[in-house]
TrEMBL record:
Phylogenetic lineage: Eukaryota, Viridiplantae, Streptophyta, Embryophyta, Tracheophyta
Key word Glycosyltransferase present: no
Entry protein name: Aldose 1-epimerase
Signal peptide coordinates: 1-21
PANTHER family the record matches: ALDOSE 1-EPIMERASE, ALDOSE-1-EPIMERASE
EC numbers for this chain: 5.1.3.3
Entry-linked Gene3D superfamilies: 2.70.98.10
Any GO molecular function: carbohydrate binding
């Protein structure tokens, strides 16, 4: 009788993992991992259902020459072994949770630690390491789009409650919109979804981004301790290497940040400077001088993680090109890191009555803004 009971338990666990998409990397079915293409004018976007990952974005430079501005791999299956989160949808809670634990409504939750004692980007198998379902796919036309969905089960990586998640990529005229949504089905739970694309506006294989010019519309940042966990305080960017209120060349002050070997910090985004049509606040603008490409990011998120690919090393990417530290910029609009342990930070708790919606709007051009014209 005991053997039969154990067998039934194992069958139940296996079935639960299958229906919820909770395969680990050894159990995944490579045949289900696909590549999808969206095309609009001069823009071509490729994504994969593994991790709802942005694989490439091809667009022209100032001379009309096409180039791919996203770091990544040649095949979608290669992303199953990725450790840098290239282009991935990261969750259930992106960035770091200190001590891999939190308390919500009087219940203490212990998470899976995967960076020392902390949880990073959802744990050992976050949303970047699962197979997503394709809900809708329109390759071309007036509004090319693809919509992925994932059911995160109660207790996955230690997080409470079942969660229905969707991610949509939508191409517009010289623009890419990414919409990340989540609905708690039975229990309140923290949610912070991030797109972890690595951008190099000169082309993915053009080397480092130290000459790119960046402007970030954040007057404050959340300082971190030795484990890269926010202290809970807010600091002004004035007089620090984090000051990008006016456009700055990335490489000018990057070596003043030895603790993180470059930029890896969360900005508190200013409330002003809205995109008139979309109602989103402008978070950052990036310009590459050689290619002439300009990217403007707008969002409804309160924060922005600026990361200069400090820990990418000898990573063999597209066409055999080997990526090294500072070979790209990550501009991750987000909730503040470790928000669930800091009552003064904007809440990340999602309930049945309060769903989650995170919007990123990326606009591309070769029209240099006036503030950047001196470079």
């Amino acid at each position: 009788m005991t053997k039969i009971f154990m067998l039934l338990c194992l069958l139940f666990l296996a079935f639960s993992g299958f229906v919820n998409g909770s395969m680990n990397k050894k159990e995944k079915n490579h045949d289900d991992i696909k590549l999808f293409e969206l095309k609009k004018g001069d823009l071509t976007l490729k994504v994969t259902n593994w991790g709802a990952t942005l694989v490439s974005l091809v667009l022209p430079d100032k001379n009309g020459k096409l180039g791919d501005i996203v770091l990544g791999y040649d095949t979608p299956k290669a992303y199953t072994n990725d450790t840098s989160y290239f282009g991935a949808t990261v969750g259930r809670v992106a960035n770091r949770i200190g001590g891999a634990q939190f308390t919500l409504n009087g219940t203490h939750y212990k998470l899976i630690a995967n960076e020392g004692n902390n949880t990073l980007h959802g744990g050992t198998r976050g949303f970047s390491d699962v197979l997503w379902k394709v809900e809708r796919y329109v390759r071309e036309g007036d509004q090319p789009l693809i919509k992925f969905s994932y059911h995160s089960f109660d207790g996955e990586q230690g997080f409470p409650g079942d969660l229905k998640v969707t991610v949509s990529y939508i191409l517009g005229k010289n623009s890419l919109t990414i919409i990340m949504q989540a609905k708690a089905l039975n229990k309140p739970t923290p949610v912070n979804l991030v797109n972890h694309a690595y951008w190099n506006l000169g082309n993915h294989n053009s080397g480092n981004i130290l000459d790119e010019v960046v402007q970030i519309f954040g007057s404050k940042f959340t300082p971190i301790d030795k484990n890269l966990i926010p202290t809970g305080k807010f600091s002004s960017v004035k007089g620090t290497p984090y000051d990008f209120l006016k456009p700055q060349i990335v490489g000018t002050r990057i070596n003043q940040l030895p603790k993180t070997n470059g930029y890896d910090i969360n900005y508190v985004l200013n409330k002003g400077k809205l995109e008139k049509k979309e109602g989103l606040k402008v978070a950052a603008i990036v310009m590459d001088k050689k290619s002439g490409r300009v990217m403007k990011l707008s969002t409804n998120a309160p924060g922005l993680q600026f990361y200069s690919a400090n820990f990418v090393k000898n990573d063999k990417g597209k066409g055999g090109f080997v990526y090294q530290p500072r070979s790209a910029l990550c501009l991750e609009s987000q909730a503040f890191p470790d928000s669930v342990n800091h009552p003064k930070f904007p809440s990340t708790i999602v309930t049945k009555e309060k769903p989650y919606k995170h919007v990123m709007l990326l606009k591309f051009s070769t029209n240099v803004p006036h503030a950047f014209s001196q470079f």
